[in-house]
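Morning F.,

Quick status update on the modeling queue. The single chain you submitted on Monday has been processed. Sequence for confirmation:
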Amino acid sequence: MESFDLFRLDGHTLRVFVSVCETGSVSRTAELFDLNQSTISHTLDKMRAAVGDLLFVKSGRGITPTEKALALLPRVQRILA
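C-alpha cells below.
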C-alpha cells in the first residue's frame, strides 16, 4: 500500500497522530499530552515527512484528516495496540 514503514516512526509520534485524528485539534492534543502546540506540530511534521502527505487540512476552527490519514489511522491503531 505505502512505500514507507510505519514501524520506523516512534510510538509517541504515532500516538500524537491518533490523538489529533480523534480530537481534530492540535491544541487539545497538546493539552492531553501536557505539551505545547509547537511540539505537537513538530511531531506531526515528522510523520508528514515520513508518509509524504499533509495528513490534516484546516476545517473551520479545527483540522480534518486527509484521505491518506484516514486510511492510515486503523493501521496505526493496530500497531499501538
